[in-house]
Amino acid sequence: MNRPVPFIDPSRPVPKRRPIKAWRHMQKLIADKEDTEQVFHIIEALNGGSMRKDFLRFMASENGPRLLAQRAFLPDILDDHAPLKALPKGTVGRTYVEFMEREGLTAHGLVEESLSNRAAHEQYDDDLLWYANRLRDTHDMYHVLTGYGRDALGEDALLGYTHSQHGGLGVSFIAFMGNRQIAKQAPKAARVKEVLAEGRRNGKAAKRIIEQDIVSLLDQPIDAVRKRLNIAEPVLYKRALSVFREYDQDPQLVAA
């Protein structure tokens, strides 16, 4: 089978790793964990050519070429809540929309957050840009499918999961530093280092979410999708949340 050769603008440079810049942005993120813009800066400063490698892996997958040809813009689909709410309880789409509304999120909101660090990237209108956008636009779907919440520890474990599926030194660095910050405040019984390790293991063992046809998953039972993709239950993460409750500590307030 002949696979299409993805177009990557030849004038697009391979990003150089800039650890000092990454460290500066990490300090800003530590000072204000809500300043999620810093995440994009850190990833840009450390990931180097890992996204190109990850994109080529995507294109070698069963669904990759077809998904690229379709070029679906997921935020428009995922922010159309009415048809998702009409789906049966327990389906991927219904679970997703309930999660987004409960958290006060929109798919387009993440697009807006990313734009401040994408000016240089956006000038290259190529297939790699489409893939970068897809990685961004599936982030909250990763939360829904993996079971990791948006509290600090859930985000940290999901970064470990994501790194196992996609690589990228920047993602791994953020996960490591975030876990270290959480450990300073969390009860020892929460075993937050083990929670991150569990996220990494779960991501490595599962099929890659990015390679799935997200739109076709929406009307399917989420338990069946998780089983098919070998997405394991985040047992240690859920146990850690129980420990937080025992210590009357709100996981949302633990600095990542």
What does this protein look like?
There is one protein chain. The protein is mainly α and 256 residues long. It has one domain (19-253). Helices cover 64% and strands 0% of the residues. It has helices spanning 19-31, 37-46, 50-59, 64-70, 74-78, 81-85, 92-103, 107-115, 119-122, 127-137, 139-146, 152-166, 169-185, 192-205, 214-217, 222-228, 235-246. The protein contains 17 helices and no strands. The termini are far apart. Helix 14 packs antiparallel against helix 17.
SSE arrangement:
Blueprint: H1 19-31, H2 37-46, H3 50-59, H4 64-70, H5 74-78, H6 81-85, H7 92-103, H8 107-115, H9 119-122, H10 127-137, H11 139-146, H12 152-166, H13 169-185, H14 192-205, H15 214-217, H16 222-228, H17 235-246
The number of distinct structural domains comes to 1
Mean pLDDT score, rounded?
92
Main beta sheet strand tally, sense and closure: none
Secondary-structure element sequence? HHHHHHHHHHHHHHHHH
Tell me the Rg in angstroms.
Answer: 18 Å
First-to-last CA distance: 46 Å
Q: What's the helical proportion of residues? A: 55-70%
Number of helices: 17
Q: What is the percentage of strand-forming residues? A: under 5%
Shape: globular
The total strand number stands at: 0
Low-confidence stretches: none
Structural class: mainly alpha
